[in-house]
Design a protein that fits this description.
Helices cover 45% and strands 16% of the residues. By secondary structure, the chain is α/β, with parallel strands linked by helices. α7 (150-163) runs parallel beside α8 (177-194). It is globular, with a radius of gyration of 18 Å.
Length: 250
Amino acid sequence: MLGYDRLIRDMHPRVELVEIRLDGVWLSRGSFQGTKRDFAEIENLLRQAREQVKRPILATFRTEGGHVSITAEVYESLVSQATRCADWVDVESNYPYLGMTAEQAAAAAENPHVQEDNEKRLTSLLRNIHTNGTGVILSRHCWEPSPNSEKEVSDLLIYQLNLGADVSKAAFSPQTPQQLANLQKGGQTTFLLTHRPTILIGMGALGQPTRLAGPQMGNWGTFVTVGGPQSAPGQLPLAQLELRYPASGF
């Protein structure tokens, strides 16, 4: 995460939304316990960012592929706290499975009663967020080689939209040209079916075309670096995106 002085200095007029990766703050600590001090630190961080960058703020605490442990209950409290200060929050659509082993999560996902309960829990959280006037990017990050079909992509994006997302985000890890094609076609199909905002990302070098072909895939936006390190594999610097889209707007 950039220091605030550097963040302001490097701020570009075409940056429309600033993501604050809260998990990065707790990376050295290994876990987020959800103490009063933790929540106060989050609120201060987001308020300071919002005041200084003069742009809408997206608060994200990434657990998928991350290195900071957190329980589902504490995650809910964290997201609720962030809505007080952020314009947008990222909510991971599989957060109810936090704290489970891979085997437990797989078994729970196959249980229709557990799945129904988790969906109710998720939609309840989203309703509370919307009550505060905060936008929701509902996300899922798939780190295994994927997607294996166009339908896999469109099903996930539409599922998250139906749960109440303002923007449905899906990040896959294509390892073959066919998987990349599945990703691109799935995004286009979703846009044609819904005409609703999505963010579709192919992580890694092979997936970089998805970060440049945003509007053609119905993408609401894309994530870039501005003077700092990547927060995801294959993320591009803003300067490279500008070469593709020199005019205003993404």
